[in-house]
């Protein structure tokens, strides 16, 4: 149908955008000297001793287009260079830190979006009533709390005061042992999922226990973002003629809100949710640091501080791709919701 | 003169206010108006005089932050009289879109962009006349069951019987748990198809009555795929789906171009005859009034200043404001005449007669006490001290 045609069109459009991202990153690379750039092609620490050989092999002294050819064929093979800050190839580092970030995201995003949308709608329906004031007040408070402070407070209460209730890190010692034992299959390195797949409830529960505080922190901090957009777009929608018309048709308020208003009001919230996903994919640096939850955020900041150029570039390439794909998904959701986009 | 029993809707002393940051907007200050059965009553007046607020208040839906402070809207149906403004919410919702329905100025804004035309019209039918259509669906299912049994397909007969069971539970209770559960279960959810088909037939018929070409195709289109005129026809179909006693039309042709305007006017006039509805036609165009209305009420700054039969009003406008309105109609060979002065601010409306600051005949009394509606002829009411 039309939606399928739209998806195909959008997927084709993805190609030039990704090429653009790659070209920009490559252009940035040209600011470095050949010797610095050589680090991008290194695969093991020994190779650092003969960088000249690498410069030769990848034609780093030759014209830009030749270099681009060799560079892009390495990138396509998945070779993004050596990350000295964590002592492993960049591609390995990405794969290693991504699951932690994904695990946070899997819980934070649905919670934030669901609660944010609910609160936004409630707030809009009860505009300027006490419910609205309270909801907005709490949301703004959450929004303005610094992540590290909120995280530390939560740790003090739920780790310090209620001793060890919700600990920092990703897993406790026992679960760590299970996970690294030979009999445990790490399919995704997302512990909750692997735990379920291995039928190890203890691992799942332990992972969840460690997730509670960082997910709570991230949800509280990002909630206002979605809630405010949802509230304002809901208010705007409720003022539309077709809402009046729906009421004039004799529909009850529940149908008016849930059928006619909510879907229209969701459109801006979808955009913001896309941003939320993309920014969480880049890692929640402060939250990850406070809870010693080593994900992409922790790795990328660490790499930047140590001038680990290949790591930073690999990270940028990854995030660029993620953002492009998130945008695509947001556009597809728009098209799903709004026939004017799908058919226009 | 109309007999008492011929009155369909009677608005009595209706007061609507908007509580805004700028102050209290006294949008309607004591409106009295009667709408007779099967008549077309026009309301004319400058922008902001309260025409739309009156319209929405009749179905107890003043646009927020408006509040109905006082008054009655009496509806006479089936030999009894009810005050719409005092009805509990659910009874009120039963009346909206069923006994009284509405069409608005901007058809493109009145239709929800995310649902098809067919969906939006069927929604009214299922809201108010679900019983009729469920029964129709059931009848068709009975026929299907018989046919299936004859052809020896006992499985299909069983499926149809299951569907029929769901419809029967819906007949007993509109929010039947069984039906709601079935709507969520794959395959079982297909029971809806029969009802959808029945509704579709009805809606397509309605669209055809609205003189829409290719009604089958239009059923599945989204509002943005139709022209303004077609959209307004769809809105009219939605409003007339349940054959309402009263159709409120709030400037339904203002946003359309002239030829389409004429078509829509014709359509409303013909359908009104056919369905036997009354129409409350709101406009600021006296030409349209002359064309479509039987009687007309002239509004100024939240009050009604003159009510008369159309011919009478055109022959003998009595209120100075009505006269000014006629003067203001552009005519060839004469410069543009506007009513001098400005429309009063409804936060602090002028005391006495609201029109007195702009009135050529105003005297002292006009600024002191509001004039009462007086009978100035057969079926002719006017609120002015100096109309003679
Ligand atoms: N949502 C609102 N908030 C505040 N005041 C309002 C609101 N809606 C209407 N009003 C006020 O009520 C008065 C009557 O408005 P209404 O919309 O009924 O005018 P109208 O006669 O329909 O004008 P138009 O010809 O422009 O449609 C206006 O003076 C306006 O200021
Ligand atoms: Mg209006």
TrEMBL record, chain A:
<dbReference type="InterPro" id="IPR035906">
    <property type="entry name" value="MetI-like_sf"/>
</dbReference>
<comment type="similarity">
    <text>Belongs to the binding-protein-dependent transport system permease family.</text>
</comment>
<keyword id="KW-1133">Transmembrane helix</keyword>
<dbReference type="GO" id="GO:0005886">
    <property type="term" value="C:plasma membrane"/>
</dbReference>
<keyword id="KW-0472">Membrane</keyword>
<dbReference type="GO" id="GO:0071916">
    <property type="term" value="F:dipeptide transmembrane transporter activity"/>
</dbReference>
<keyword id="KW-0812">Transmembrane</keyword>
<dbReference type="InterPro" id="IPR000515">
    <property type="entry name" value="MetI-like"/>
</dbReference>
<feature type="transmembrane region" description="Helical">
    <location>
        <begin position="97"/>
        <end position="117"/>
    </location>
</feature>
<feature type="domain" description="ABC transmembrane type-1">
    <location>
        <begin position="98"/>
        <end position="334"/>
    </location>
</feature>
<protein>
    <submittedName>
        <fullName>Peptide ABC transporter permease</fullName>
    </submittedName>
</protein>
<feature type="transmembrane region" description="Helical">
    <location>
        <begin position="211"/>
        <end position="230"/>
    </location>
</feature>
<keyword id="KW-0813">Transport</keyword>
<feature type="transmembrane region" description="Helical">
    <location>
        <begin position="12"/>
        <end position="32"/>
    </location>
</feature>
<dbReference type="Pfam" id="PF00528">
    <property type="entry name" value="BPD_transp_1"/>
</dbReference>
<feature type="transmembrane region" description="Helical">
    <location>
        <begin position="265"/>
        <end position="291"/>
    </location>
</feature>
<feature type="transmembrane region" description="Helical">
    <location>
        <begin position="311"/>
        <end position="334"/>
    </location>
</feature>
<feature type="transmembrane region" description="Helical">
    <location>
        <begin position="138"/>
        <end position="162"/>
    </location>
</feature>
<keyword id="KW-1003">Cell membrane</keyword>
UniProtKB/TrEMBL annotation, chain B:
<keyword id="KW-1003">Cell membrane</keyword>
<feature type="domain" description="ABC transporter">
    <location>
        <begin position="9"/>
        <end position="326"/>
    </location>
</feature>
<protein>
    <recommendedName>
        <fullName>Nickel import system ATP-binding protein NikD</fullName>
        <ecNumber>7.2.2.11</ecNumber>
    </recommendedName>
</protein>
<keyword id="KW-0406">Ion transport</keyword>
<dbReference type="Pfam" id="PF08352">
    <property type="entry name" value="oligo_HPY"/>
</dbReference>
<dbReference type="GO" id="GO:0015413">
    <property type="term" value="F:ABC-type nickel transporter activity"/>
</dbReference>
<dbReference type="InterPro" id="IPR003593">
    <property type="entry name" value="AAA+_ATPase"/>
</dbReference>
<dbReference type="GO" id="GO:0005886">
    <property type="term" value="C:plasma membrane"/>
</dbReference>
<keyword id="KW-0472">Membrane</keyword>
<dbReference type="GO" id="GO:0015833">
    <property type="term" value="P:peptide transport"/>
</dbReference>
<keyword id="KW-0067">ATP-binding</keyword>
<keyword id="KW-0813">Transport</keyword>
<dbReference type="InterPro" id="IPR050388">
    <property type="entry name" value="ABC_Ni/Peptide_Import"/>
</dbReference>
<dbReference type="InterPro" id="IPR003439">
    <property type="entry name" value="ABC_transporter-like_ATP-bd"/>
</dbReference>
<comment type="subunit">
    <text>The complex is composed of two ATP-binding proteins (NikD and NikE), two transmembrane proteins (NikB and NikC) and a solute-binding protein (NikA).</text>
</comment>
<dbReference type="GO" id="GO:0005524">
    <property type="term" value="F:ATP binding"/>
</dbReference>
<keyword id="KW-1278">Translocase</keyword>
<dbReference type="InterPro" id="IPR013563">
    <property type="entry name" value="Oligopep_ABC_C"/>
</dbReference>
<dbReference type="InterPro" id="IPR027417">
    <property type="entry name" value="P-loop_NTPase"/>
</dbReference>
<dbReference type="GO" id="GO:0016887">
    <property type="term" value="F:ATP hydrolysis activity"/>
</dbReference>
<dbReference type="InterPro" id="IPR017871">
    <property type="entry name" value="ABC_transporter-like_CS"/>
</dbReference>
<dbReference type="Pfam" id="PF00005">
    <property type="entry name" value="ABC_tran"/>
</dbReference>
């Amino acid at each position: 149908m039309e939606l399928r045609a739209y998806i195909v069109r959008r997927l084709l459009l993805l190609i030039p955008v990704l090429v653009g991202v790659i070209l920009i990153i490559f252009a940035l690379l040209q600011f470095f000297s050949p010797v610095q750039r050589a680090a991008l092609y290194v695969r093991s620490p020994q190779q650092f001793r003969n960088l000249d050989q690498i410069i030769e092999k990848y034609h780093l002294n030759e014209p830009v287009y030749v270099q681009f050819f060799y560079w892009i064929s390495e990138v396509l093979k998945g070779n993004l260079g050596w990350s000295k800050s964590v002592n492993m190839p960049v591609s390995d580092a990405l794969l290693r830190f991504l699951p932690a970030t994904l695990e946070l995201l899997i819980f934070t995003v649905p919670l934030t979006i669901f609660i944010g949308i609910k609160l936004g709608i409630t707030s809009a329906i009860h505009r300027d009533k006490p419910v609205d004031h309270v909801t907005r007040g709490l949301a703004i408070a959450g929004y303005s709390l610094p992540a590290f402070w909120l995280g530390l407070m939560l740790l003090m209460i739920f780790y310090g005061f209620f001793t060890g209730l919700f600990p920092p890190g990703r897993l406790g010692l026992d679960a760590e042992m299970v996970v690294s034992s030979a009999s445990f299959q790490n399919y995704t390195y997302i512990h909750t999922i692997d735990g379920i797949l291995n039928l190890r409830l203890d691992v799942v529960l332990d992972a969840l226990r460690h997730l509670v505080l960082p997910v709570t922190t991230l949800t509280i901090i990002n909630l206002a973002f979605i809630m405010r957009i949802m509230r304002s777009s809901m208010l705007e929608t409720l003022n539309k003629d077709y809402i009046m018309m729906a009421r004039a048709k004799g529909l009850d308020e529940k149908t008016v809100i849930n059928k006619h208003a909510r879907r229209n009001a969701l459109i801006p919230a979808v955009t913001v949710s896309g941003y939320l996903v993309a920014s969480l994919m880049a890692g929640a640096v402060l939250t990850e640091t406070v809870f010693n939850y080593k994900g992409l955020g922790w790795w990328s900041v660490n790499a930047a501080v140590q001038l680990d150029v290949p790591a930073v570039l690999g990270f940028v390439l990854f995030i660029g791709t993620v953002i492009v794909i998130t945008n695509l998904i947001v556009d597809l959701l728009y098209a799903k919701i709004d026939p004017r986009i799908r058919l226009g | 003169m109309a007999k008492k029993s011929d009155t369909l809707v009677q608005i009595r002393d209706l007061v609507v206010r908007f509580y805004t940051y700028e102050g209290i907007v006294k949008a309607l200050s004591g409106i009295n108006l009667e709408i007779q059965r099967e008549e077309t009553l026009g309301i004319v007046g400058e922008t902001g005089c309260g025409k739309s607020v009156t319209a929405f208040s009749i179905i107890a839906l003043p646009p927020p932050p408006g509040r109905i402070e006082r008054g009655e809207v009496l509806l006479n149906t089936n030999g009894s009289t009810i005050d719409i403004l005092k009805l509990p919410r659910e009874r009120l919702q039963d009346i909206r879109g069923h006994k009284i329905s509405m069409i608005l100025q901007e058809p493109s804004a009145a239709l929800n962009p995310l649902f098809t035309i067919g969906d939006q019209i069927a929604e009214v039918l299922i809201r108010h006349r679900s019983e009729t259509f469920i029964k129709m669906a059931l009848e068709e299912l009975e026929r299907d069951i018989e046919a299936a049994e004859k052809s020896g397909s006992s499985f299909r007969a069983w499926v149809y019987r299951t569907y029929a069971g769901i419809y029967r539970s819906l007949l007993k209770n509109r929010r039947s748990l069984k039906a709601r559960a079935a709507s969520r279960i794959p395959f079982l959810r297909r029971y809806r198809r029969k009802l959808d088909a029945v509704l579709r037939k009805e809606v397509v018929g309605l669209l055809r009555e609205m003189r829409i070409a290719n009604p089958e195709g239009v059923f599945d289109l989204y509002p943005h795929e139709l022209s303004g005129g077609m959209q307004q026809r769809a809105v009219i179909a939605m409003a007339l789906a349940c054959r309402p006693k009263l159709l409120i039309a709030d400037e339904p042709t203002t946003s359309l171009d002239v030829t389409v305007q004429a078509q829509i006017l014709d359509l409303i006039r013909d359908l009104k005859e056919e369905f036997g509805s009354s129409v409350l036609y709101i406009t600021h165009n006296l030409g349209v009034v002359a064309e479509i209305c039987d009687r007309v009420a002239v509004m100024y700054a939240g009050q009604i200043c003159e009510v008369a039969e159309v011919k009478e009003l055109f022959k003998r406008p009595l209120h100075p404001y009505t006269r000014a309105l006629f003067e203001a109609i552009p005519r060839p060979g004469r410069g543009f005449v506007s009513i001098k002065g400005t429309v009063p601010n409804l936060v602090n409306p002028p005391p006495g007669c609201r029109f007195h600051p702009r009135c050529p005949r105003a005297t002292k009394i006009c600024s002191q006490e509001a004039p009462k509606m007086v009978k100035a002829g057969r079926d002719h009411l006017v609120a002015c001290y100096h109309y003679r």
